[in-house]
Amino acid sequence: MPLYSYIDDETEEVFDIIQTMSEDHSFFNPSNGNKCRRLWTVPNASVDSVSKINPFDTRGLAEKAGQMKGTMGDMFDMSREASLEREHKSGAEDPVKRKFFKDYERKNKSKHFHDVPSKIETKHATIDFTKPPQDIKLDD
């Protein structure tokens, strides 16, 4: 059964009461009869860490994502953490991401939107994608 907290505003006493969810959520201070105000708290929850699964095991990560109870954002966060861990462990770019980009390019005959170079140089201009647009300078 859930634990509910109430506070008596006059005495500032806090009471933790076990009640069912269907019960009327009201409580009176037994010592003075004042109606207590319910305190709303953040529920305790634990989030599984991606570090429990080998980040190079894409099948295990997909199974874990399929069993997750959460939002799409939670799944994207788990995927991003796994990618960062693969980058860190391999010492270079994430090999799973690189394979995805190669397969995408082979299938679609063009590069993936996120697989762009960080810098493009031509004889007329240099574009550095790591800098904000106002810092782009044309060569003379």
Brief descriptors of the model:
140 residues, two-stranded antiparallel sheet
Write the layout of secondary structure elements.
Blueprint: E1 3-7, E2 14-18, E3 27-28, E4 35-39, H1 58-67, H2 72-90, H3 95-108, E5 119-121, E6 126-128
Antiparallel strand pairs: 1-2, 1-4, 3-4, 5-6
Number of helices: 3
For the biggest β-sheet, the strand order reads 2-1-4-3
Q: What is the alpha-carbon Rg in Å?
A: 27 Å
Helix content: 25-40%
Let me know the largest β-sheet.
Answer: 4 strands, antiparallel
Structure overview:
The protein has 140 residues and is of the alpha+beta class. The protein has helices at 58-67, 72-90, 95-108; strands at 3-7, 14-18, 27-28, 35-39, 119-121, 126-128. Among the domains are: 3-39, no CATH class; 50-108, no CATH class. Helix content is 31%, strand content 16%. Strands 2-1-4-3 form a four-stranded antiparallel β-sheet, with no helix packed on it. Strands 5-6 form a two-stranded antiparallel sheet. A hairpin with a 6-residue loop joins strand 3 and strand 4. The chain is elongated, with a radius of gyration of 27 Å.
Summed up, what is this model?
This protein is α+β, with helices and mostly antiparallel strands and about 140 residues long.
